[in-house]
Amino acid sequence: MKKWSLLVLLFWAITASVWAQKTDHYLLKNVRIHTGQGEIIEEGAIAVKAGKIVELGLTKELAQKNYKEQIDGQGQWVYPALIAANTQLGLVEVEAVRATLDFREVGYFNPNIRSVVAYNTDSEILPTILSNGILYSQVVPEGGRISGQSSVLRLSAFNWEDAVVELDEGTHLWWPNRFQFTGWWAAPGPTKLNEKYRPTIEGLQLYLAEAAAYCQQEAPEKKNIKMESMRGLFFGDKRLYVHVNEAKAMLEAHQLLSPYGVKLVFVGAAEAWRIADFLAEQKIPVILSNLHALPRLEHDDVDQPYKTPAILHEKGVKFALSMQGSWNQRNLAFQAGQAVAYGLPKDVALAAISSNVAEILGVSEQIGSLEKGKAASFILSKGDLLDMRSSQITAAYLDGKLLDLDKDKQKQLYKKYMDKYELETPASKN
């Protein structure tokens, strides 16, 4: 009888555990909520139902309501899921192995290329990115002058169709460099004028004029796939992301593209601080790439890349922070923290990797901040998320579902060798 009783109890315990994992209606309470919009709720609570945030407020108020499952956050800090812009996540696996690279196509003008169909949800890089609080990414193609269309995707999904947050939300144009930098970072050579710059711009101008003329036809007799994919730009449905770093080149890009009425976003924008007033006046958002870099010009301040976010904020420019590539995206939050050390307010730094990114990418109605009606995608940390010394992410929820952060291969290897040599991990000590 005792054995049967134990089996029954074990059965109900397993059933209850499975039910708890599948329930889509719960309350996360006793947490410090950073909404991503500059607001902090002390001793707060988040109510989730069907993957959406249904209530946000104080624990003492929401805990009294009828939520069958209530999760005690034990004073941890809650942040909105971070969004990595301008990445090749899911398109690159091993950079030194060409067969694992799927972010570049042959050809010069490829507006019809879609990065989303090459997105690999089984990439071993993705769990390492998830572990640092980045749950969404803008996946961008490269190659040629117009490289194709990006999409905003979840970093945890069964296939690319399930991963989609916003499909083909923008087209990417790689503006030519006015100058050529010779040598390398340890031994820079002389800077030369790019003689192909003007002919390249003229060719781009002709292509845009041809595409605009084509798109004015509602039903062309002979369809051109490449031109058809440009329609969203001229009708305001999509954004044009112009990858450019030089201040003068940004001004020329605006001059060339503004007659077409496209929604401009400058990506890279290392010298955006030089024309911050112009960008604010024209309301052109910026996605800064990799603040952990040397200044572009010899006479620039050595810490200019670190100061740029604060300058843009003071001038009223809408901006986001990003890191190029794939695996290094995991340091995105710490890059924002470095900008704080150089004058950027902490709430603005958080917005630059969450709500600001969502606004620039056109997905702010779904993700980017912790608000009623938005996706219940957030992360829990025992310390300041932007501080690499104290950040300790303990849990992540994507559309209300708890993610398994132990799939991170680096964590698995760490535990493997700690166990091999019978050493105590920080978790086992606690």
From TrEMBL:
Keyword Hydrolase: no
Signal sequence residues: 1-20
Keyword annotations of the record: Signal
Entry-linked InterPro entries: Amidohydro-rel, Metal-dep_hydrolase_composite, Metal_Hydrolase, Metallo-dep_Hydrolase
Any GO MF annotation of the entry: hydrolase activity, acting on carbon-nitrogen (but not peptide) bonds
Claim: Oxidoreductase is one of the keywords in the record: no
Cross-referenced PANTHER family: ALPHA-D-RIBOSE 1-METHYLPHOSPHONATE 5-TRIPHOSPHATE DIPHOSPHATASE
Protein name: Amidohydrolase
